[in-house]
């Protein structure tokens, strides 16, 4: 697909997530059209401040997901601590407290796989810095369904394991710097 | 296949057919569950039970009743924690119990009790607060195996460290180890905790109201339902609750999207505890 056919973006990040996400999300313009779903590995027992933090820095709306949250364009959605996020349909999200996947809840794989089911070739997946393997299966599911996967260059990532795992399992992924990823999402998806 | 009018995927058709078969043959109704989770769980069941397709799984399910409990294990079993989200139990202890104390007798419904973690947490809290004696607890689930597990009150010993930590954070006034005996890697909870508990097979999808409650706690069950089914379940809670009775939901569940929202007021917004309005 070309990026202009994209309907949604999913992003996964772990160790070093804050800085990497800032570089990407704060550059999205106020008139950005797509919904963006983000899983960051956060401790289960803490109230997450990610949504508040990014709301202050971003030009688009930022929310933490509640169950059956309606999907609106131009909005960034963060997974809450201790729940998986799944894309239910192009209209809504759902949560699950099924067991952790690869020790993670929320799991990047769970989000990516459910999003690939719903959006097929209309999905862009982004894997950023992280110290585990989460997201690799999900990235593969996205390219298998005809979508696009962008992976942060492991050489430049705070933690290289997650990008490396995604590249290994997903040969169709494009390896990019953070600013290239930001440019792709911003310019590539503009109408 | 980028055409918007693309035909339904084969797997989606298979899932709908399996859920229909499950209902027609065994009267378990998952047809209005949130589809993304069901799909994930059915794929897991298919792979781990060794079937090539969901259709093949359905064939076996229809012809071999012994498949039913195995499949239900995938579709319903939920691993929870005792005192999961200690803040929820702290608010019950500090804000809700003072209201509950004013009643001479109490009925509490743990809806979707699964393996019993939330039930035992609640009974222990009520005992610590001195209101267990006057309370009947109803613990319901659709999964018989889960109900039996809840009734046995046995948990893996290795989980006790987390449960103990949660209990402490919830404002626990006793030591959790006072309530169980450890042996052979397992923790068996004291049977006196079940003295006032009624375990029962009850479906929020197909069954009706069965008693008037002062408090319904249903956490991380509704997330697995679609919105229509959530409304059905919330309608049951609404009709079960006495005037000014309380409803507790999971941390990320809310009444925001429900048609019953008007019947409830926020009691504790952060911990998702609602109070039935007097209408």
Summarize the SSE layout with pairings:
The complex is a heterodimer of chains A (191) and B (279).
Chain A: E1 8-13, H1 17-25, E2 36-40, H2 50-57, E3 61-64, E4 75-78, E5 84-87, E6 93-96, H3 108-119, E7 123-127, H4 136-144, E8 148-152, H5 161-169, E9 174-176, H6 178-188
Parallel strand pairs in A: 1-2, 1-7, 2-4, 3-4, 7-8, 8-9
Antiparallel strand pairs in A: 5-6
Helix pairs in contact in A: 1-6, 3-4, 4-5
Chain B: H1 10-26, H2 35-48, H3 54-63, H4 67-76, H5 86-100, E1 106-111, H6 117-128, E2 135-141, H7 144-152, E3 154-156, H8 160-169, E4 180-183, E5 186-189, E6 197-201, E7 213-218, H9 227-240, E8 241-249, E9 264-268, E10 273-276
Parallel strand pairs in B: 1-2, 1-7, 2-6, 7-8
Antiparallel strand pairs in B: 3-5, 4-5, 8-10, 9-10
Helix pairs in contact in B: 1-3
Folded structure, characterized:
The complex is a heterodimer of chains A (191) and B (279). Chain A is 30% helix and 21% strand. Chain A has 191 residues and is of the alpha/beta class. In chain A, strand 8 (148-152), helix 5 (161-169) and strand 9 (174-176) form a beta-alpha-beta unit. In chain A, helix 1 (17-25) runs parallel beside helix 6 (178-188), helix 3 packs parallel to helix 4 and helix 4 (136-144) packs parallel to helix 5 (161-169). Chain A starts with 7 loop residues before the first strand and ends with a helix. In chain B, a hairpin with a 4-residue loop joins strand 9 and strand 10. In chain B, 40% of the residues lie in helices and 19% in strands. In chain B, helix 1 (10-26) runs parallel beside helix 3 (54-63). In chain B, strands 6-2-1-7-8-10-9 form a seven-stranded mixed sheet. In chain B, strands 3-5-4 form a three-stranded antiparallel sheet. The N and C termini of chain B lie far apart (52 Å). Chain B is an alpha/beta fold.
């Amino acid at each position: 697909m070309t990026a202009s056919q994209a309907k949604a973006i999913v992003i996964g990040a772990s160790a070093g997530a804050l800085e990497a996400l800032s570089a990407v999300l704060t550059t999205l313009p106020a008139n950005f059209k797509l919904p963006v779903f983000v899983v960051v590995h956060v401790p289960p027992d803490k109230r997450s401040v990610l949504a508040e933090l990014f709301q202050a820095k971003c030009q688009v709306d930022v929310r933490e997901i509640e169950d059956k949250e309606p999907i609106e364009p131009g909005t960034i959605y963060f997974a809450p601590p201790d729940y998986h996020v799944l894309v239910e349909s192009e209209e809504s999200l759902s949560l699950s407290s099924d067991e952790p996947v690869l020790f993670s809840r929320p799991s990047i794989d769970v989000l990516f796989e459910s999003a690939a089911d719903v959006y097929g070739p209309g999905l862009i997946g982004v894997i950023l810095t992280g110290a585990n393997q989460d997201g690799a299966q999900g990235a593969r599911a996205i390219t298998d369904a005809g979508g696009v996967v962008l992976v942060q260059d492991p050489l430049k990532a705070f933690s290289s394991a997650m990008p490396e795992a995604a590249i290994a399992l997903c040969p169709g992924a494009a390896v990019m710097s953070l600013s290239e990823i930001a440019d792709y999402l911003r310019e590539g998806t503009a109408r | 296949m980028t055409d918007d009018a693309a035909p339904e995927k084969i797997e989606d058709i298979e899932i709908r057919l399996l859920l229909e078969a499950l209902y027609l043959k065994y009267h378990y109704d998952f047809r209005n569950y949130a589809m993304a989770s069901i799909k994930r769980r059915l794929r897991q069941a298919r792979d781990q039970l060794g079937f090539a397709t969901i259709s093949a799984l359905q064939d076996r399910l229809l012809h071999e009743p012994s498949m039913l409990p195995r499949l239900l294990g995938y579709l319903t079993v939920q691993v929870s924690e005792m005192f999961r989200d200690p803040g929820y139990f702290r608010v019950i202890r500090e804000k809700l119990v003072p209201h509950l104390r004013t009643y001479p007798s109490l009925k509490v419904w743990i809806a979707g009790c699964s393996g019993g973690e939330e039930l035992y947490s609640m009974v222990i809290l009520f005992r610590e607060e001195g209101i267990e004696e006057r309370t009947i607890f109803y613990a319901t689930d659709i999964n018989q195996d889960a109900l039996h597990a809840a009734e046995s009150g046995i948990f893996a010993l290795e989980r006790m460290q987390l449960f103990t930590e949660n209990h402490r954070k919830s404002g626990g006034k006793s030591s959790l180890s006072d309530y169980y005996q450890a042996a052979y890697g397992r923790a068996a909870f004291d049977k006196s905790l079940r003295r006032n508990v009624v375990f029962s097979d009850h479906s929020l999808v197909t069954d009706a109201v069965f008693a008037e409650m002062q408090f319904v706690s249903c956490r991380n069950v509704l997330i697995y339902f679609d919105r229509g089914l959530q409304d059905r379940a919330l309608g049951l809670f609404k009709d079960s609750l006495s005037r000014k009775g309380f409803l507790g939901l999971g941390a990320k569940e809310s009444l925001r999207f429900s048609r019953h929202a008007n019947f409830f007021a926020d009691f504790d917004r952060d911990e998702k505890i609602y109070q039935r309005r007097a209408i």
